[in-house]
Each structure stands twice: as C-alpha cells, then as structure tokens.
Amino acid sequence: MSHAPAKASSETRKQLFRVWRGDKTAGTFKDYTATVTPGMVVLDVIHQIQAEQANDLACRWNCKAGKCGSCSAEINGKPRLMCMTRMDELPTDMPVVVEPMKAFPLIKDLVTDVSWNYDVKKKIKPFKPRKPDAPDGTWRMDQADVDRVQEFRKCIECFLCQDVCHVLRDHHKHEEFIGPRFLVYTAALEMHPLDTEDRLADLRKSQGLGYCNITKCCTKVCPEHITITDNAIIPLKERVVDEYFDPVTKLFKMFKKKT
Ligand code: SF4
Ligand code: SF4
Ligand code: FES
Hints:
By secondary structure, the chain is an alpha+beta fold. It is 34% helix and 14% strand. The longest helix has 17 residues, at 228-244. It is elongated and about 70 Å long. FE2/S2 (inorganic) cluster binds at residues 61-64, 66-71, 81, 83.
C-alpha cells in the first residue's frame, strides 16, 4: 500500500503521532494529535507534544542540527535522527510512529542507554604514530592516504548503524561484535598513514568482524553518508584475509619465525 507524502505547503495541519511510552519494565504506544506547521521536523513535534500534552515524555537531543548524534530514534520503523527528519517527507495518511532504538537497553520513552558503545571504544587499540620523518618533528604523508580516512572522521556517533545491524539488533552479539560504528573507527586508525598498531588479530577474534555479512543496512541509515560497508568494512576484511589466509603471507611469516 502506498502512502501519500506530505505536501510542502504553507498550511498548518493536524497529524497523528504514535509515540512509544514506557521504561524497561513495561510500555505501550500512545497517540497524540500534533499541529504541524511548515518547516517542522519530527523533533519539533516531539517537543510540542512534551510542552502541550505529555510533560514527562523523555527524549534526548542537543544540537537540532544533525551534528551531536543524540536524537536517534526509529521513525516509521527506520532508524533516523529526529532533528533531520522533515515532516513534509513523511506520509500524511497514517500515524507517524516514533519509538526508541532497539539495539540498546531502554531507559525511558525514546531514550536508550548507549553506554555499551563507549565501553567498546575504550577496548580498541589507540592511535600509535611512527617516529617523525624529519628532524623538526614533522611527518610526510601522501595526500591520497590522508584523504582516504577523512570520510570516517565525519561520524557523529549517533549509533543508528549499530541499531540497524542485525548482528546486534536481532542476534544480540554485543559481547562478540563491535558493530559498524567501531569498524569505521578501526578503519580510520588502521588506514591512517602514520599509524603503526596492528588491530587485525582483535578484529578477527574478539571484535567479530566475521559476523558482518555485508548487508549494507548500516550504510543506508548513516546520516553522514559514510560508505561504511564498501570503504571501511570490506577493506578491513581484505586485510584480515591477506594476513591470516593468504598462502604467500603465511609462508613469509613462517620464514620470518625460523630466521
Ligand atoms: S553490513 Fe555488516 S555491519 Fe553493516 S548492518 Fe550489515 S551485517 Fe551489520
Ligand atoms: S557511522 Fe554513521 S550511522 Fe554510524 S554512528 Fe557514525 S554517523 Fe552514525
Ligand atoms: S539533536 Fe543533535 S543530531 Fe539531532
């Protein structure tokens, strides 16, 4: 069934919102009728509902500019930033359904506990630069190598990619898989032209790179349009294969051990 998209009109209209309310013990969807004016985003409507109908509705936000990564939620079943989802993109002939992310424990209403992500980040080996190339303490790098990692640095840690990934969301492999956000973070370190650390063993063993089956769902939801799968995950998988399964590399390692 197709739904009519909202028209970018100058008219004020009423829109039904269905918002998840509750905490980790119990909850349910509640309906609210909001007044939508031109230019509003979903976060504006949530704030309006808070102000006028449900003062105790919990949501997390900071910048309202798509940069802090705080307002992540699921809108009509899709992980999105509430502050970057325009009301005129959404169908008008059905309720706008807003619910919390599913891959993390719920705190209240639209707010989830994303602290697992910060714990994962702490376990990734940090940047370890090589010695400076010049006596004045500076390095020389190819521009192409510098450019390669810039894309990964756009991440705002909204964790929408973690939320959509079936390995975390459906299979709950939080103990064994670091998720697409931290594969992007690791790729930024591994591909950095100055870095000398080796994270491939961790990626293969404790960080679960093998669980990713390249579905590309993470890439599709990233609000920063980072090409997570093609530019970060696949090159990391290739590096692991080269290191552990390439017969020439294996022979070279055996030879190195003997000498
Ligand atoms: S491509 Fe990999 S990391 Fe991304 S959502 Fe799919 S399984 Fe998860
Ligand atoms: S990679 Fe994209 S979706 Fe994932 S946390 Fe960063 S900005 Fe959000
Ligand atoms: S409020 Fe900062 S990204 Fe939405």
